[in-house]
Amino acid sequence: MATNAELFERASRSIPGGVNSPVRAFRSVGGTPRFIARAVGPYVWDAEGKRYIDYVGSWGPAILGHAHPDVVRAVQEAAVHGLSFGAPTEAEIELAELLIQRLPSMEQVRLVSSGTEATMTAIRLARGATGRKKIIKFEGCYHGHADSLLVKAGSGLLTFGNPTSAGVPAEFVEHTLVLDYNDLDGVGAAFEEYGEDIACIIVEPVAGNMNLVKPRAGFLEGLRELCTRHGALLIFDEVMTGFRVGPQGVQGLTGIKPDLTTLAKVIGGGMPVGAFGGSADVMRHIAPLGGVYQAGTLSGNPVAVAAGLATMRLIAAPGFYEHLTAQTRKLAEGLQSRARAAGLAFSADAIGGMFGMYFSAHVPASLAEVSAADVNAFKHFFHAMLDRGVHFAPSAFEAGFVSATHDDAVIEETLDAAEAVFKDMKQ
Ligand code: PLP
């Protein structure tokens, strides 16, 4: 049996950094990534046969726990009938109808294969529909890796951003304005200056890519109001929050209606599915109806759609979100009370099946506040928990995910391990 270290060494010879997505490489916490051999319910097992309670959940999709038998069966049954046709299927209509029915802001939806595709196309659509160039995003929100979105704030308050990735020419991000999350005044000032030319705001309506950061009261409402007033489109990137924080995403919790919504993760149940949708009036700009181009060989893939449909049906069970929310809250509150009892500056927050933990006395409201937390304490906590069989995201800038299979015994086991680690840390 190969060890994790041997596999990492081998992987690093054929795959850059040994991983197919950078955060998996443990660069921000150090050490060796665990190579996963299998997963069931709340658990994953690594290549050495060690079991972990998993709070990564494939970075969000595994809301039913890993390898839910109904989802696995749906995939197997679909696969028997063919893996991909490149032609429309009835199952795609069913998934589209389900999504539209659950999210009233969408009258039409286009299926793609990832969150990146969904957000990249939503931006193109917003520009195509408005005939405007500029977009607003917020520091610390991640919307996938399209060129114009790999950008951080420039030096001035209202200057356009700088690329965060080599290979992205400055010209490609010159129309992306990067503002502080939860700073409505900043958005107001941007509209004062550039209002006529702003095509859209894209926002994680609850941010999960700078740890968990919730919108302040009035922030999302303010974005809605400014977009409406200036003729810009409001894009809720619900790739992470969609069907994760509640049965209708953040838009259901707040009652705010975005013009466009992007989805992925949960709607594919662990298979590659993304989606973007909005009113029929906006969606008519997409090819083949309109001039905004978008396509995909594997879009609406029958096996992926089968997993998504099975997942969407299971999460519609009565009480599903009440249970998920209660379990996640137990975890967050339990972590916070145990850390504070040990005398540590620690906070935790939760919404639906998502949680954040911060080695700071207060729950942060922006990337700057998240960055001020004690990163070394997080690294220590992460590794000590991993040793004890609990798998958190290997970065202090990621939200955590609970599944419906994280029952009381699983949460208690996690909290017992955390209590021991917190006590050690204080010494
Ligand atoms: N948008 C948000 C809010 C995300 O969290 C992510 C991925 O984590 C993406 C977009 C990109 O999705 P994908 O990794 O499926 O391309």
TrEMBL record:
Q: Where does it live in the cell?
A: Cytoplasm
Record's keyword terms, sorted: Cytoplasm, Isomerase, Porphyrin biosynthesis, Pyridoxal phosphate
Enzyme class, UniProt record, top EC level: isomerase
Modified residues annotated as N6-(pyridoxal phosphate)lysine in this record: 265
Main localization (coarse): cytoplasm
Which first-to-last residue range defines the signal peptide?
none
Q: Which SUPFAM superfamilies match?
A: PLP-dependent transferases
Instruction: Output one GO BP term.
Output: protoporphyrinogen IX biosynthetic process
Q: What is its EC number?
A: 5.4.3.8
Q: Which GO terms describe its cellular component?
A: cytoplasm
Q: Which InterPro entries match?
A: 4pyrrol_synth_GluAld_NH2Trfase, Aminotrans_3, Aminotrans_3_PPA_site, PyrdxlP-dep_Trfase, PyrdxlP-dep_Trfase_major, PyrdxlP-dep_Trfase_small
**From the UniProt record, which GO molecular function terms apply?**
glutamate-1-semialdehyde 2,1-aminomutase activity; pyridoxal phosphate binding; transaminase activity
This protein's cofactor list reads: pyridoxal 5'-phosphate
Q: What reaction does this enzyme carry out catalytically?
A: (S)-4-amino-5-oxopentanoate = 5-aminolevulinate
Report the pathway entry: Porphyrin-containing compound metabolism; protoporphyrin-IX biosynthesis; 5-aminolevulinate from L-glutamyl-tRNA(Glu): step 2/2
* Sequence similarity: Belongs to the class-III pyridoxal-phosphate-dependent aminotransferase family. HemL subfamily.
Q: How does it assemble?
A: Homodimer.
Give the matching PANTHER family: GLUTAMATE-1-SEMIALDEHYDE 2,1-AMINOMUTASE, GLUTAMATE-1-SEMIALDEHYDE 2,1-AMINOMUTASE 1, CHLOROPLASTIC-RELATED
The molecule here is called: Glutamate-1-semialdehyde 2,1-aminomutase
Give the source species. Answer: Achromobacter aloeverae
